[in-house]
Design a protein that fits this description.
It is built from 11 helices and 8 strands. With 214 residues, it is α/β, with parallel strands linked by helices. The chain has one domain (2-209): Aldolase class I (TIM Barrel). Strands 1-2-3-4-5-6-7-8 form an 8-stranded parallel β-barrel, surrounded by 7 helices. Helix 8 runs parallel beside helix 9. The N and C termini lie far apart (44 Å).
Length: 214
């Protein structure tokens, strides 16, 4: 499973890359607004750090404007993926982007039927928001499992990008469910590296090493 970082913080992205497991980056208007920089500046900086897919979200909601913005985003760097919301106009824009060779990440997906429509439109990635589904009493991971089965049934090439990841178990379960990738906040990148038994074992090894004769 690929690891993406969900961030617009340049330093976080650099640190994630240093772990040698970073496959891509996802952003959204909320994350970019926190930087105090323009969307183009942030995305340009990110694409220089990460050579994998970098998702940048459109702000338009109508078909013509979404497509216009998607074309502008795609010109920023060759690894840019245009993030488009799962709406009627959004899906129409995804289909047009696909015809033009523009990669897309369809966001705000909450059920497998939406994911099926996105795949039929030619989306490069589908982003089911599993944490938000859990928040309202649904099983977010079941959504991943059902999308995986549908995509496998019909050999869709759209990659499942598990989003709204809240804790390490979400990452584990997404991998078990067959998600192609998971996008996680930086805090989880560091948390999943840690385990008390790993720490205790290392400390024991170091104590024992002090008793080894020189």
């Amino acid at each position: 499973m690929k690891f993406f970082i969900d961030s617009a913080d340049i330093e976080e992205i650099r640190q994630a890359k240093e772990l040698c497991v970073l496959d891509g980056v996802t952003t959204n208007p909320t994350l970019i607004a926190k930087t105090g920089r323009t969307i183009r500046d942030v995305i340009t900086s990110i694409s220089e750090i990460c050579q994998g897919p970098v998702s940048c979200e459109v702000l338009a909601t109508q078909y013509d404007e979404i497509l216009k913005e998607a074309r502008e985003i795609a010109k920023i760097a060759p690894n840019l993926v245009v993030k488009i919301p799962l709406t009627k106009d959004g899906l129409q824009a995804v289909a047009s982007c696909t015809k033009e060779g523009i990669k897309t990440n369809v966001t705000l997906c909450f059920n497998p039927i939406q994911a099926l429509l996105a795949a039929k439109a030619g989306a490069s990635f589908i982003s089911p928001f599993i944490g938000r589904l859990d928040d309202i009493g649904h099983e977010g991971m079941q959504c991943i499992q059902e999308i995986r089965q549908i995509y496998d049934n019909y050999d869709f090439k759209t990659e499942i990008l598990a989003a709204s990841i809240r804790h390490p178990l979400h990452i584990r379960d997404a991998a078990l469910a067959g998600a192609d990738a998971a996008t996680v906040p930086f805090s989880l990148f560091t948390k999943i590296l840690q385990h008390p038994l790993s720490r205790d074992g290392l400390e024991q090894f170091l104590r024992d090493a002090e008793r080894i004769p020189n």
